[in-house]
Amino acid sequence: SYVLTQPPSVSVAPGKTARITCGGNNIGSKSVHWYQQKPGQAPVLVIYYDSDRPSGIPERFSGSNSGNTATLTISRVEAGDEADYYCQVWDSSSDHLVVFGGGTKLTVL
Amino acid sequence: QVQLVESGGGLVKPGGSLRLSCAASGFTFSDYYMSWIRQAPGKGLEWVSYISSSGSTIYYADSVKGRFTISRDNAKNSLYLQMNSLRAEDTAVYYCARAGLERDFDYWGQGTLVTVSS
Hints:
By secondary structure, chain A is mostly beta strands. Chain A has strands at 9-12, 18-23, 33-37, 44-47, 61-66, 69-74, 83-90, 98-100, 104-108.
């Protein structure tokens, strides 16, 4: 089955840029979606179709996808961005259709 | 606004059964694929099951295949998950989520906790 690999943790100072990667075999050929989850809350979609933002998501959140790596970029990081972030793809080539990455804990220093 | 409200979670013994429900509002339920996704305590997200808008197409994760059954009632704007032969490893918060056109999940419920323990 298809595997998505994320770093367990990323740390960044307020006002700086955070980059969270999601690795997968030829992931550039798939649509990648990103979710933010704060403690005790349900996940929230922050990026879909590699780089599109749902309404209400700040422009500080952006995404890219090429080759074997997709990246979620958060510019001008704020304390409120501290959360777990998950990438997700649809893998039509297998029975395990929906695949999530293991998640990345973003810590704002 | 879009709302998804899960119910039916609780404590159940290994081997037991439970039926989860998800009440949808704020959108045309019958137009959307829906899914159940779970999260074990302190762990990441795990997809469980997926159902097409009409209910004619259904998928399951290998970990629940043969034990769980997803269904929907479009007249009642409701999604269900019948869980049988429950195991300790099924302990998790279960979320229902609406699937977008890109196979993303654009709205999630608040989740319902299922605990499987003797």
